[in-house]
Amino acid sequence: MAALSRRRLLALGGAAATAALLVGCGFQLRSADSLPTLPPLSLEGDTSTPLTRELESVLTRQGTEVTANAPWRVTLGAPSVENRALGSEGRANRDHELTMRVTLSVQRRQDNAYVLNNEVMSTSTRIRINDDDLLNREALLEEANLTLARQLARRIVERLGTLEAPS
Questions:
Q1: Higher pLDDT residue, 88 or 62?
Q2: Which DSSP string do the residues of 52-114 spell out, in sequence order?
Q3: What pLDDT score does 78 carry?
Q4: What are the φ/ψ torsions at residue 83 (nearest 5 degrees)?
Q5: Whether the model pTM is above 0.85
Q6: Closest listed residue to residue 58, CA positions, set 161, 163, 166
Q7: Among residues 162, 58, 40, 61, which one has the least CA distance to residue 108?
């Protein structure tokens, strides 16, 4: 019983020391509050996709104004999703790697200068799918595509946060 208590005490002590070390070096878990504050933006290009809707949602939740005549013009291309099956052909359950890509351009409205020109942004995820179960297969792929759109929208906002604010 005493050995169990000692092990537990050592484990808790180790966890506390690790937490103190991480806090001491400035480590913080990523949250919605970690997204940068951005000037007003206008979204252009292929604006009817789930990615664009998610991007607009992320921007408005963080307080960024999305209007037609904003100082920054953000143009999105049509997102593409590549589905790569991993593993051998003979198995019904297979891992799939899904990658969503989109081109992103950012222009200053005042002088039409490109700050970003057709930069390709992407994000990936892996899911396990039973290729014999067509109904669940489509639902899993649709859910994965929405997850990719959320991830890519956050990456776009983070990338926009590194740009110089318009004068």
A1: 62
A2: HHHHHHHHHHTT--B-TT-SEEEEE---EEEEEEES-TT-SEEEEEEEEEEEEEEEETTT--E
A3: 94
A4: -110, 110
A5: no
A6: 161
A7: 40
Q: How far apart are CA 35 and CA 58, in angstroms?
A: 9
In whole numbers, what is the pLDDT of the chain averaged over residues?
81
With residues binned 3-state (H G I as helix, E B as strand, rest as coil), the percentages for the chain, rounded to 5, are 40, 30, 30
**What contacts 87, CB < 8 A, 6 or more positions away?**
94, 95
Residue 121 is classified by DSSP as: E
CB 42 within 8 A of CB 67: yes
Q: How far apart are CA 42 and CA 164, in angstroms?
A: 16
Q: d(Cα 17, Cα 8) in Å, to the nearest integer?
A: 14
pLDDT tens, position by position, 22-77: 555 554 444 445 667 788 999 999 888 999 999 999 999 989 999 999 999 999 99
